[in-house]
Design brief:
Length: 960
């Protein structure tokens, strides 16, 4: 039989009286508790006697604080958790049960005992009221229990027994019985002996019955009386106003101690304690022994005062903070202070000066002793040629366009880190030359990450980028460039630019994750990047501010892979307080194409988006699978200042095979989210376009050119009438005029990022030619994706048939373009390397990522000073190929010499071919040498120290 847990509350309120009228007392009372004979079991119970547990409970001094006078009613409470002895597992609910020895009168079967005894003979007391509270009692199946009050003498013997009451589970108690109160008989006499409140089996129920208890809360009342000698302690401050003392006055039992603390006010120092003009101590706090009424003085000494004036005459360049603001700039003479100067972006700290212009320090953090009045100012300077209005690079648009990335912004300069190998390492054992090392080593000085290797960098664990101010430039990588696969790369710091990098996660990792995660940061630019093959979203970018995603591809999210949530195929979750996505291709994903993140509650800045302006313009959406593939944008924040505004402008929608099979019945530019009308965001739709006469347009009238032209002409077409062919939809709220008035914007509320919009048709032409990681050259995956979106090639690859986990019993065959694994795709050439399949634990040779190696005759650039620019280019530009510092120096344009080179390569104005290295040995296509070469042509002894990629394979030690 299952027993439910009983919560028993014993109430004792202390009522105090004493001969001294209105006197106070601070006597400490210990609260002891005893738990006897506890056991856990199902049918058999341990008959061994368990030891009694006694411990100090709540400090009952709280009952008799100095503000409480004798004669008032007081209360205390302590929570006791029973301990179990001889425990063992039971079937079903595990309960604490009190051992029963079978005596008919239950005299040896105490359940819970609360014992209270004063630690002084000066006080007498007697409990006056006891109560029991029971919760989750099983009616008609548990035995009755009774409450007793016992009086014990000094030897612990019971001298008086009072039966206060009995609770019968069969008649008097239900499942939530509370607060049975029992008055103590008037015949109970006060003494200074101990009293025990006992809850036990009721007589006649002990034999073979079980009483279950859990956490027991003990509180109570009693009457306290007696006679004590009290003395008053008083402490005063000399001179008046120099400080404070605590306590200033109190009454205590004569002979007790009082601890008193003196606190000086600003401008004073504590001197010492005096009684009758005699110093009794300089310690603070001081312990006074009170044998009679006592008058003490806390004496203070007046200190000299000094005033500090600090700051800067250049507030646009930087700011100053101080360790202690004092009293409106006034301090005690001799105070030690620290000033810290912080330069604004594009500036740097120069020196500290006093009021006469004398240099005090050139360290940004200046610690000094203030003895007299002083004036200290921070002097800043602007970085030569720095421009605050300079965009990240020519062609950067949107809210993130002012991101500086690895550009020099102060006098620290900037650094270049070369990635020279494609293997990975761990965070706690960084290996020079790996991508993880390049992103995590060093300090926060701006850095540019460049590559002297090519191919797939397979991450074996999550890579958190723990530094800000970074540019990752893939456009100058050798061969076919860089792909990051395996585990996730996560941006955790602000001001980062990533260009011409592929992120293709794959399905070998045990955990589903986006290949790139961008959260709780600001100023991010993703330019010409490619995202695909994720078991979760291909990209997560939200809870951010000032971001741009431009000329990127997000495609072929894995549908039925290893995600514990079942089928996915998600393009991205995207948002941000001010975010722009433009000229991107979103292709061959069932849903989240994208999912606009929306607004949620937040407890700290950037924890969640709160004031959202999302600019979604000039993008191409191809081969989406669900009618509500693009959704989100809700406003679920309780903050009245919050808003979520999504601006969908001049986007081009082209159906594909997945659209044909999955979105035939409904067709929307967006299906906005929000559980009710109060939780929806605001939407501005303008000149978005469905392709007319599309090859893969589903059958049905809503896909006819006539209907499509209507929604293309009016992106709110049919909304208020809830027309089946309406242009947009709200997922959980029926369209109506009321909803339209609240949620649909017919003009921009203010200027957005300032980008220039193309028509949807022109955006389609541009995106299908230029999106994705095009440099150093397209890989065959992106070439295929662009061709499919452009209509010059039809989607071909798809995953195998599977049983839906979301709809058991339903078999799903993915449409063309929707894949379950990268293995569903046939590559003409592939990058071959070893990686761990975490589902099986086996290390396998994988051929699922496209080949990006060096073609015959391609060689590395020579960069002697490692500043990121090839030697011959530096010579042609009038720079010194042996001086690394000229790379990060800013030119009159505002860009550094390195940025000019990287930007020129990206926009095609600089050709890399004249700057290639010469004389590097490259293995021949059919070479069967048992050696490994890195991209410098150096022969290596161990695998994964570097690779030489040629004609679709890596030369690995395992191949020999």
């Amino acid at each position: 039989m299952k027993q439910k847990l009983i919560l028993l509350s014993l109430f004792m309120t202390i009522v105090s009286t004493v001969l001294a009228q209105n006197a106070t007392v601070t006597t400490h009372w210990p609260l002891n508790k005893s738990i006897k004979d506890l056991a856990v079991g199902s049918t058999a119970y341990n008959s061994a006697t368990a030891s009694t547990t006694t411990c100090e409970g709540t400090d009952v001094k709280q009952m008799l604080e100095t503000s409480v006078t004798f004669g008032s009613k007081l209360a205390f409470q302590a929570t006791i958790t029973p301990q179990s002895y001889a425990t063992k597992e039971v079937t079903g609910l595990q309960l604490l049960r009190f051992k029963v020895q079978g005596a008919a009168d239950g005299s040896n079967d105490y359940g819970m005992i609360l014992q209270i005894k004063p630690n002084t003979t000066d006080l007498t007391y007697v409990p006056t009221k006891v109560g029991v509270s029971v919760a989750s009692w099983v009616k008609n199946s548990s035995p009755a229990f009774e409450v007793l009050l016992l009086k014990l003498n000094a030897a612990g013997e019971v001298t008086q027994t009072y039966e206060l009451g009995k609770v019968n589970s069969h008649a008097d108690i239900d499942a939530n019985y509370d607060d049975a109160s029992f008055d103590v008989p008037a015949t109970a006499t006060a003494s200074n002996d101990a009293w025990q409140v006992v809850v036990r089996m009721a007589q006649g129920y002990a034999n073979g019955k079980n009483l279950a208890m859990g956490n027991v809360t003990l509180t109570g009342t009693a009457t306290v009386g007696g006679s004590v000698q009290l003395s008053t302690f008083t402490a005063t401050v000399v001179p008046e106003g120099a400080g404070t003392v605590s306590p200033a006055q109190t009454s205590v039992v004569t002979g007790d101690n009082v601890s008193c603390t003196a606190t000086p006010n600003i401008g004073y120092a504590f001197e010492g304690w005096y009684i009758n003009n005699v110093q009794v101590g300089t310690d603070n706090p001081h312990l006074f022994t009170i044998n009679s009424d006592t008058q003490a003085e806390a004496r203070f000494t007046k200190l000299d005062e000094a005033t500090l004036t600090y700051g800067t005459d250049m507030p646009a360049m930087g700011s100053v903070s101080i360790s202690d603001k004092g009293d409106n700039g006034k301090y005690n003479a001799g105070t030690v202070l620290t000033l810290t100067a912080k330069a604004n972006k594009g500036h740097y700290f120069v020196r500290w000066e006093d009021g006469n212009g004398n240099v005090l320090s050139t360290s940004a953090q200046y610690t000094f002793t203030l003895n007299t009045d002083m004036t200290i100012k921070a002097v800043f300077a602007m970085v030569d040629n720095y421009r605050a209005d300079l965009i990240a690079f020519p062609g950067a648009e949107g809210y993130g366009k002012y991101t500086t990335g690895g550009r020099m912004t102060d006098n620290r300069g900037a650094k270049v880190y070369y990635v020279t190998r494609t293997d990975d390492c761990s965070d706690d054992a960084l290996v020079e030359g790996t991508l993880r090392w390049a992103l995590r080593t060093g300090d926060d000085t701006p850095r540019t990450i460049l590559f002297r290797t090519c191919g797939t960098i397979y991450l074996t664990s999550k890579l958190s980028v723990n530094h800000p101010n970074i540019t990752i430039a893939g456009q100058t990588a050798p061969g076919g460039g860089i792909c990051i696969a395996g585990y996730q790369m996560k941006l955790t710091q602000p001001n980062i630019i990533i260009r011409h990098i592929r992120f293709r996660a794959g399905d070998l990792a045990a955990t589903s994750m986006s290949p790139l995660d961008v959260e709780n940061v600001h100023h991010i630019v993703l330019d010409h990047c490619s995202f695909s093959w994720s078991m979760e979203e291909n990209l997560t970018l939200y809870d951010t501010d000032s971001t741009t995603m431009q000329w990127c591809i997000s495609a072929e999210g894995l549908y039925y892979s290893k995600n514990v949530k079942g089928e996915r195929s998600y393009a991205m979750q995207w948002g941000g307080e001010h975010g722009t996505m433009h000229h991107c291709l979103v292709s061959s994903c069932i849903s989240r194409s994208p999912r606009f993140n929306g607004v949620r509650n937040q407890a700290k800045p950037l924890e969640h988006d709160l004031h959202v302006d999302n600019e979604f313009a000039n993008n191409v959406i191809f081969n989406w699978g669900n009618h509500n593939s693009i959704h989100g944008g809700e406003n679920a924040s309780a903050d009245e200042s919050s808003y979520d505004r999504v601006y969908m402008i001049n986007n081009y929608y082209r159906p594909g095979p997945a659209t044909y099979s999955g979105a035939a019945a409904k067709r929307y530019f967006v299906s906005a989210s929000g559980d009710n009308i109060n939780l929806v965001g605001e939407w501005y739709l303008s000149d978005n376009k469905f392709e007319l006469s599309s090859r893969w347009a589903p059958n049905g009238s809503i896909w006819s050119d006539t209907e499509l032209q209507k929604v293309n002409n009016d992106n709110y077409y049919g909304f208020t009438s809830d027309y089946a062919s309406r242009a947009m939809n709200f997922w959980s709220v029926s369209p109506s005029q009321t909803l339209a008035d609240k949620a649909l914007l017919h003009e921009l509320p203010y200027a957005l990022s300032g980008m220039t919009y193309e028509t949807a048709d022109e955006a389609y032409r541009q995106v299908t030619q230029k999106a994705g990681a095009s440099l150093p050259r397209y890989d065959e995956v992106d070439e295929r994706l662009l061709a499919e979106a452009a209509g010059t090639r039809q989607p071909q690859y798809h995953g195998s048939t599977f049983e839906s986990e979301k709809k058991p019993g339903t078999m799903i065959t993915p449409a063309a373009g929707i894949i379950n694994s990268p293995a569903d795709i046939t590559l003409s050439r592939y990058d071959e390397f070893y990686a761990k399949d975490e589902a099986t634990g086996q290390t396998i040779k994988t051929q699922m990522w496209p080949w990006m190696g060096m073609e015959e005759g391609e060689q590395l650039m020579q960069d002697t000073d490692q500043d990121g620019m090839p030697d011959e280019y530096e010579k042609s530009a009038g720079l010194n190929p042996n001086d690394a510092s000229d790379g990060y120096k800013l030119t009159e344009s505002g860009y550094s010499n390195l940025e000019i080179f990287l930007n020129g390569v990206a926009d095609g104005t600089i050709d890399l071919k004249p700057y290639k290295m010469t004389g590097i040995r490259t293995p021949q296509k059919d070479s069967n040498e048992g050696a490994i070469y890195n991209l410098r042509g150096q022969r290596l002894l161990h695998p994964h120290k570097g690779i030489n990629i040629l004609n679709g394979r890596k030369y690995l030690a395992e191949d020999r």
